[in-house]
Amino acid sequence: LNQTLFKNSNEPPVVFHWFPVIGSTVTYGMDPPRFFKENREKYGDVFTFVLLGRKTTVCLGPAGNDFVLNGKIRDVNAEEIYTVLTTPVFGRDVVYDCPNAKLMEQKKFMKIALTTEAFRQYVPIISDEVTSYFKRTADFKGQSGEVSIPPKMAEITIFTASHALQGKAIREQFDESLAALYHDLDMGFSPINFTFHWAPLPWNNRRDHAQRTVAKLYMDTIKRRRANPEIDAQDMMFHLMNSTYKNGVQVPDHEIAHMMIALLMAGQHSSSSTSSWIMLLLASRPDIMEDLYQEQINALGPDLPPLQYEDLAKLPLHGAIIKETLRLHAPIHSIMRAVKQPLHVPGTKFVIPTNHVLMSAPGVSASDPVFFPKPDLWDPHRWLPDSPNAPTLARAQDEEEEEKIDYGYGLVSKGAASPYLPFGAGRHRCIGEQFANVQLQTIVAEVVRLFKFRNVDGSNKVIGTDYASLFSRPLEPAVIHWERREKA
Ligand code: HEM
């Protein structure tokens, strides 16, 4: 006993649990933010809990966010944790199935297709997809009705993202076979696959078949495009086809195909969950939906001309809607890393041993009253000037003014000691933030032009969160009442 006490004296406190292996899996799994909040009150910003038999140490608050997300490559490692889930879904040799230096180069290639010039083309594409979706979809026929909104936002997300990022030819296939295949790929992302990724279970077989079929479809398209270079548009596939690693090797076709899958999957869950939350929150606050409509009329004129990329900057409340929704409903609530050598947590006496998994949960600081007055209130106006609920720290407001560093995929903030990091930080930071903002703002702007939403019972209630998959999202069904602004 003495020896155990001695050995563990520098380890963080362990959350009390009755059963080994199971540990805190159930209480954490049911509601991770609440689990973090309650245990932070008991144990402080750094504590350990048992998750599926693994000792998991979470570091909370801005300092904890920085410690985990900005961890040095010799100290922490993402691919060892995630590869069992992502490699069967994306395919070999990309993202977490390769050394980190290669991922950094791949992120650089992907980012080249996500420039202002590209976004100018994407906005009209996304606008058209949204308006045509609401015209043709049976659930939106007539003047008003009720609908569970998350499945609709999932469809709008995949149609807009596939059309903008992968081109018209691939988009057309999403009406038929491709959507079903991506659904099968999705099954590979259930948390149960952390344990059973290898098992010959029916959904794993479907996942593997879907991965092969989708990758072949992209590879056939790449071959066709290489044979007919004149049909090339400057889209994501084009940029990847023309990218070369630092060692002189051109990116092979199978890696391009696998990166295309990874991009669509990374964007799909996060954006579709976020747009669903936005629609549900607007239904709970019809007054804010009206503010958005007025903002468009004031900034763009009463005729509401077709949206352009440049218009988005004139709509700060539309931007604030997204920021505020991600503050309270970031789809990625827990980020994990393997520990490569015993890690001292700065400012504490704790040393985290290599058999622990390190975890970051930036959502905890994003709902801390120290940084965000009335933290539980969804108040998009807090991000605009002169709000009484404005974030209390300059850092929470403006990442742009910080010192920058390049991990190999472009400049990002050097420090990550911010309470607000829905897109992560450091070498694994999101490269899709700008695309997600363009996509979400355009979707919101088009929906606001077409509809008024409210809760079915007219209340301000907001539905709870489903934490059962790796990405959190609204519990379903999540039914809202919609009404067309103009006669159909
Ligand atoms: C990484 C959030 C949309 C592509 C990340 C990370 C977060 C995040 C938190 C860091 C993960 C980690 O540290 O382990 C979000 C949110 C989104 C969004 C909240 C939308 C609201 C997108 C989109 C794309 C994308 C649209 C693609 C077009 C990526 C990629 C990475 C990443 C490639 C890098 C993974 C790595 O380096 O390990 N995202 N994301 N994301 N995201 Fe996003």
| Helix run count | 20
What order do the strands of the largest sheet run in, or round the barrel if closed? Answer: 1-2-8-5-3
Q: Let me know the number of strands.
A: 14
Low-confidence stretches: 1-6
Could you name the CATH topology? Cytochrome p450
Name the CATH superfamily assignment.
Cytochrome P450
Compute the separation of the termini in Å.
Answer: 75 Å
Approximate shape: globular
CATH architecture: Orthogonal Bundle
Structure overview:
- Strand 6 (about 345) and strand 7 (about 350) form a beta hairpin.
- The protein contains 20 helices and 14 strands.
- It has a single domain (about 70-330, about 370-420, about 420-485), classed as Cytochrome p450 (Orthogonal Bundle).
- With about 500 residues, it is an alpha+beta fold.
- It has a five-stranded mixed beta sheet. A three-stranded antiparallel beta sheet has the order 4-14-11.
- Residues about 1-5 have low confidence and may be disordered.
- Bound molecules: protoporphyrin IX containing FE (HEM).
- Protoporphyrin IX containing FE binds near residues 107, 422 and 432.
